[in-house]
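ok trying this again, last paste got cut off
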Amino acid sequence: MIQYPMVDLKGQYNKIKNEVDNAIAEVINQTAFINGPAVKRFQANLEQYLGVKHVIPCGNGTDALQLALMALDLQPGDEVITSTFTFIATAEVIALLKLKPVLVDVYPDTYNINPDAVEAAITDKTKAIIPVHLFGQSAHMNRIMNIAKNHNLYVVEDTAQAIGADYTCPEHHKTKKAGTFGDIGCTSFFPSKNLGAFGDGGAAFTNDNVLAEKLRMLANHGMKVRYYHDYVGVNSRLDSIQAAILDVKLKYLDDYASARLKAAEFYNNAFGNTEEITTPVTAPFTTHVFHQYTMVLNGLDREELMKHLAAKGIASAIYYPVPLHLQKAYRDPRYGQGDFPVAEMLSKKVLSLPMHTELTEEIQQRIVDSVLEFIHQ
């Protein structure tokens, strides 16, 4: 039986139970379940937090990515560059819209998309880049934005795992939130995310007034005036109860990030001199909000370590066991085994340990001791 899960949503809820329960009760009493006052309030507060002009709430993070690409008027066959080492949703929406996913490799230390690989993959059919801010830290947005500007490309940021992270431009020393550099940023409010709902939810955000209006219309069946449809859209809405919960949790998001960072530092200090483990690296231009604590195992049997931890009641997980270019659904004659060596290496060697806001040093010490016991047995 797992005593120490990857996330502890119940423990987090218990700390803010009264606020959450009251927020839910308010929505029920108002009976404004779709696009009610709670949604508008959360939208405004998230705009202020992120420092963007427009937040467009929607049904989930995958929808946010799809809406973003729909808003850019891309055409079937247009190429969109993204990472091969990420969750499937990033490439999934590209393929669903009959666009062409162009996959590139990542850095071995931060696991984020490699801008050099992005630039090398650009063709005359390339129309957009989707950098993924993986595991909690921002990709190198200054370089990516410069590449996009030089080649007249759109940038859609996948910030599902890094909401709240700060990126400081190495050239201009200006700090902004991850997800607010590109044309559109997207995030997920899946329950296990750093800012998680009690169900599905997502949002797109932008500083472009025209794109914002189009995103809102696309998420609402392509209409601005009821029953008058200007675009072929979808039905993707954040319901009021989820918005009310998220609005409560948004007030604590920076505290949650601090708790995760403290937990990551504990792990780093514990494993820092262990040659069998490479601890995660934070790039100098970004903060890390540690959606996941993902380390690289050197010469260890990953499956046996996971069994060892599970026997002691400790959860662990692999994000991600198969890079996108080797997934059955995304097989492409352009790519094969060995084409993206960093992503393929990471897929074979990464392991994530429990990471959440309710970790105590006592719990972490048990986890650390169990990992070290396996190494030294």
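PB: full thing came through this time. The longest strand covers residues 54-58.
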